[in-house]
Design goal:
single chain, mainly beta, Immunoglobulin-like, five-stranded mixed beta sheet, two-stranded antiparallel ribbon, globular
Length: 125
C-alpha cells in the first residue's frame, strides 16, 4: 500500500516553545507501544545538505511509561533551542524510527517552516 506524504507548511517565532504531539496507532486504531522508538526533527536550508550541516536537529527516545505504552508522546522544541535559529524559510521533516537491524523509518511529516523574527527577547525566567 502506498503512503501519501503529509506535507505541512507552518511558521513559528524564534524563541517560542513548539510542541508536536504524537499518537501512533495500528491500522485498526489500536495503540502501539512506542517505548524505545525515536522521533527525529530536522531543519535544513536545502534538502541536499548533510544532517551534520542542518540548521537544527533534535532526536528524542520515548521512555518506558504509561504514555509510551499507549503510543503517545511529544517532541518539544524549547524556547532556548528555537532562540538559536535565525529567522528564515527552511525545509523540515519529522521521522519515526523503530530501532532494529535495519531500523524501520517512516517520515510522518515534511514541508517548509518560516521562522519569524521575535520582537520581545526577554526570557522572563
Amino acid at each position: 500500500m502506498a503512503r501519501h506524504p503529509n506535507i505541512e507548511h507552518f511558521f513559528f517565532y524564534r524563541g517560542d516553545t513548539q510542541v508536536f504531539p504524537l499518537q501512533i496507532t495500528s491500522v485498526g486504531n489500536a495503540p502501539v507501544d512506542i517505548t524505545g522508538h525515536e522521533w527525529w526533527f530536522t531543519m535544513k536550508r536545502s534538502a541536499d545538505e548533510q544532517d551534520r550541516d542542518a540548521v537544527f536537529q533534535k532526536r528524542i527516545v520515548f521512555p518506558p511509561g504509561d504514555q509510551s505504552t499507549v503510543g503517545e508522546g511529544a517532541l518539544v522544541l524549547h524556547s532556548s533551542e528555537t532562540r538559536a535559529i535565525e529567522p528564515g524559510i527552511y525545509l523540515y521533516d519529522m521521522q519515526h524510527v523503530i530501532p532494529g537491524f535495519p531500523p524501520i523509518v517512516a517520515t510522518l511529516m515534511s514541508g517548509q517552516i518560516n521562522v519569524l523574527a521575535d520582537i520581545t527577547r526577554s526570557d522572563r525566567a
